[in-house]
Amino acid sequence: MIKQQPFRASKAQIAPRVASRRVVVCRAAAPALTDVERKALSVFEATGKTSKEETLRLLVRAGLGRLVDQETVEGAILHMERLAEQDKSGPTPSIAGRWRLVFGTATKFRPFQYIPVKEDFVLNAEAKTVALESSLGPFDFYIRGVMNQWKPDSGELDFQFTKVDIHLLGEKKWEVSPKTKPKTYTFFYVADDLALARSSAGGVALLIK
């Protein structure tokens, strides 16, 4: 396996992605913030660059090149979550496809919030399946499940993982069927190549295409 290296984008590459993005922001009710989240939001707001456009530029830099510190990224995502409450846009379009999970706060250990392995969240709307595909050294992990419900009006995706396939050097070696609980990702910002969501298991996430 080839170790993934962070991609560092130039300002010229970043600006067009923000300017040309087709944007749909979902109306989502932000939950009460934890103490850690409140601090992260304060750190982001202290930058003084809190317009929607400036926030998106920061998140693009984080998604493409991991160029922003973790606490500021978390604060920027939470800021977008708050902005979503004020938005009057229509239903969320389909989120089907392959999304790279770049950043998540399910773990509170800051060094691991930029996800240190290649990890893709894959949704097949026609087959109503979901998968989390990741690689670590010679191992590939395919965590598969079902899409229980997609609610475009609220941006909520209900799903449950049911099976794990483990491959070694490209060949399937093991299959596990763990006991899991249903989960929900609430997408409060969706664009052609960037999405933000909150997990029912805790924390927020940044995904890119």
TrEMBL record:
It comes from the Eukaryota. This is Plastid lipid-associated protein/fibrillin conserved domain-containing protein.
